[in-house]
Amino acid sequence: MQTTKFRNALYFPALASLYARLDTPAETVLRVVSGVALVTHGFPKLMNPFGAVEMVEGLGFYPGIFWSPLLAATEFFGGILIALGLFTRPAAAAATIVLLVTVWFHWITLGQGYAGAEKSILWAAIMAFLVIRGGNAHSVDARIGRQF
Asked: Are 66 and 81 in contact (CB under 8 A)?
């Protein structure tokens, strides 16, 4: 019934089967690309795990010597897990929290408003989507048959 409703709602109903076939691969691309982007963003932090001590303490996260390496690990290793689709939901949940903090940092702390926080909002939304959806059929989670 849901498929029929969807097909009838399309401007071009002939595309329904294409959309259905590309649904899971498109979601996989989103997961892998966002995971790789997190790895890329987290790698410099991992190379200098205490480099963000001052910044995290400026946000009220004490001691910074604990939170700075945790930030680096969340981005780098969480990104790897997300890209692989292994423990997707907890990794994406941790990344969502980090990204919501960056929304606060840019919007409130730096006073940049929406313009400064826009990328973080988009990334937080992607991570929240992955928390809800999990790794999908093309993930290690699916291969091992277990998800959170």
From this structure: no
What pLDDT, in 10s, does the model give residues 57-81?
A: 988 999 999 999 999 999 999 999 9
Structure tokens at 81: 């897990």
Report the predicted TM-score, pTM, of the whole model to 2 decimal places. 0.89
For residues 43 and 38, what is the distance between their CA atoms, to the nearest angstrom? 8
For residue 43, count other CB atoms closer than 10 A to its CB.
Answer: 13
Whether 30 and 128 have beta carbons less than 8 Å apart is answered as no
Neighbours of 106 (CB within 10 A): 20
CB 7: neighbour CB atoms within 10 A? 15
Other beta carbons within 10 Å of 25: 12
